């Protein structure tokens, strides 16, 4: 490892930027700086009640992945934090993380990046020239050896092409990015377009105060609850090394059949007008605990795709018409681009498709791999541990000199992933950066040698090995060995069950070894 300091820029102090700073600090030869555009840290999870171009959640948003599967690998959440945290708690967790590891002094708030271009000596050095405005609005320029783009992909609303007659519509049309809460929607007829997580959440929330909510979905969706049998968080049940083995061994049609069977035991998707043509794992899943109840109550009614607008009504593809529509809420997803980097001419994006190795190293900059995109994935599972793992991979290459595959090998991997995605998922701009949590974490872990050494564990610590293999694939298992392993990882793994049960059972006591017992 070179003794010369490398200057690294992290752009964004949210759920991807914070672990990037934290892991950069583990390398003595890295001097890290973070530019955060807003006046606070937390990114998406720092709720913004005003209209903004920045990414933000709704006022009522709770996380869709459980706290243990969402945590960073060396910072287990507090015992009493809810398994599915409200955005306030999620933001508090991020701020506690930053405080615990002393990250705040490396973050420059109200610093906005204007442009990133290859430096004059880039061909030999891989350096980047960054122009930015500081807190006083003054424009500055600085050279960095490496850049980590951690600004997320939930800031640029995707607005579909206008429907016939839309220009005549007298009601309001708003994207879900700008939806804050239910105020202003009382006693109105609302049409929510899109059945992703945002669309489901908006429809459920508005159904309590609006006159009527119509939920528009072109193809339907399989709806998962946050909780599985016996109230276990669903991601802690289905994300394990054992489940990963099963999914790689059992034919995909059988895996999908079993998932559909389980989901239809909760409610029959066909009876509720939600059953899609694609299999359960053929599209990004929708997480919603209340939607079938709201449909059963009639406060949410499911509609097919929109055909056209009039001044006050909407006609749907099945010929039905809803009159006196007041509000249309577009939960139609987001777009992303890399216009900051040489005006978008270097790293090209087409319909949310871009060529990037492991979704983080753009092929356009594979000559040096000193620029990486962190958090540009849509996982079935939590994004935060994946962003942290991506940061670890980048820093092992940037600071420790670990070799990556050559450009041709990277290109072959990108092509293979795209082909695999087209075979599994329905064609959609939301499925261009789709990954499975456990598989992708292990894929990244392979690159830096931090996947659990199961042979050694089975031989030396068989009970821990059992927990690691059959228990949830929590982020702590990737700190048992490999670069920058963490001595607290084993205890964090043993304590998972206690921390998951403690928020809903205050009579629970911790035993040695992380087991728990109930008080009489």
UniProtKB/TrEMBL annotation:
Signal peptide: none annotated. Its cofactor is FAD. GO terms for molecular function: flavin adenine dinucleotide binding; N,N-dimethylaniline monooxygenase activity; NAD(P)H oxidase H2O2-forming activity; NADP binding; trimethylamine monooxygenase activity. It is found in: Endoplasmic reticulum membrane; Microsome membrane. It is an enzyme of class 1 (oxidoreductase). The keyword Phosphoprotein applies. Its EC number is 1.14.13.148, 1.14.13.8, 1.6.3.1. Belongs to the FMO family. This is Flavin-containing monooxygenase 1.
């Amino acid at each position: 490892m070179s003794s010369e300091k490398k200057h690294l820029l992290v752009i964004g102090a949210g759920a991807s930027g914070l672990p990037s700073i934290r892991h950069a600090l583990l390398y003595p030869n890295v001097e890290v700086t973070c530019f955060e555009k807003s006046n606070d840290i937390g990114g998406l999870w720092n709720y913004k009640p005003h209209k903004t171009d920045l990414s933000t959640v709704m006022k009522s948003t709770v996380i869709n992945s459980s706290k243990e599967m969402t945590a960073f690998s060396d910072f287990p959440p507090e015992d009493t934090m809810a398994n599915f945290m409200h955005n306030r708690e999620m933001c508090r967790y991020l701020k506690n993380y930053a405080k615990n590891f002393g990250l705040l002094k490396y973050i420059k708030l109200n610093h906005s990046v204007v442009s990133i271009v290859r430096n004059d000596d880039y061909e030999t050095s891989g350096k980047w020239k960054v122009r930015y405005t500081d807190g006083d609005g003054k424009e500055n320029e600085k050279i960095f050896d490496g850049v980590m783009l951690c600004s997320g992909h939930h800031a640029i609303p995707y607005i579909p092409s206008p429907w016939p007659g839309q220009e005549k519509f007298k009601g309001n049309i708003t994207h879900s990015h700008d939806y804050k809460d239910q105020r202003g929607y009382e006693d109105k007829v609302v049409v929510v377009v899109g059945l992703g997580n945002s669309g489901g959440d908006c429809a459920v929330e508005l159904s309590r105060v609006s006159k009527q909510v119509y939920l528009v979905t072109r193809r339907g969706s399989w709806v998962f609850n946050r909780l599985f049998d016996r109230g276990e968080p669903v991601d802690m049940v289905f994300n394990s090394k054992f489940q990963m083995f099963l999914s790689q061994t059992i034919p995909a049609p059988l895996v999908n059949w079993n998932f559909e069977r389980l989901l239809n035991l909760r409610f029959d998707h066909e009876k509720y007008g939600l059953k899609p043509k694609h299999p359960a794992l053929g599209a990004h899943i929708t997480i919603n605990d209340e939607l079938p109840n709201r449909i059963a109550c009639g406060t949410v009614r499911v509609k097919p795709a929109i055909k056209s607008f009039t001044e006050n009504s909407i006609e749907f593809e099945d010929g039905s018409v809803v009159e006196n529509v007041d509000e249309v809420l577009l939960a139609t997803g987001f777009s992303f681009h890399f216009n900051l980097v040489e005006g978008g001419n270097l790293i090209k994006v087409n319909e949310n498709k871009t060529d990037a190795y492991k979704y983080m190293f753009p092929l356009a900059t594979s000559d040096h791999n000193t620029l990486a995109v962190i958090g540009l994935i849509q996982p079935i599972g939590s994004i935060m541990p994946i962003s942290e793992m991506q940061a670890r991979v980048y820093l092992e290459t940037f600071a420790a000199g670990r070799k990556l595959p050559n450009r041709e090998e990277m290109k072959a991997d990108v092509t293979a992933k795209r082909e695999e995605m087209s075979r599994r998922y329905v064609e959609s701009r939301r499925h261009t950066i789709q990954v499975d949590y456990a598989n992708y974490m292990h894929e990244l872990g392979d690159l830096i040698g931090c996947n659990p050494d199961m042979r050694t564990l089975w031989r030396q610590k068989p009970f821990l090995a059992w927990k690691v293999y059959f228990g949830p694939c929590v982020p702590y298992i990737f700190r048992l060995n490999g670069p920058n392993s963490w001595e607290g990882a084993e205890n964090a793994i043993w304590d998972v069950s206690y921390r998951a049960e403690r928020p809903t059972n205050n009579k629970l006591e911790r035993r040695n070894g992380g087991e728990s017992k109930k008080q009489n």
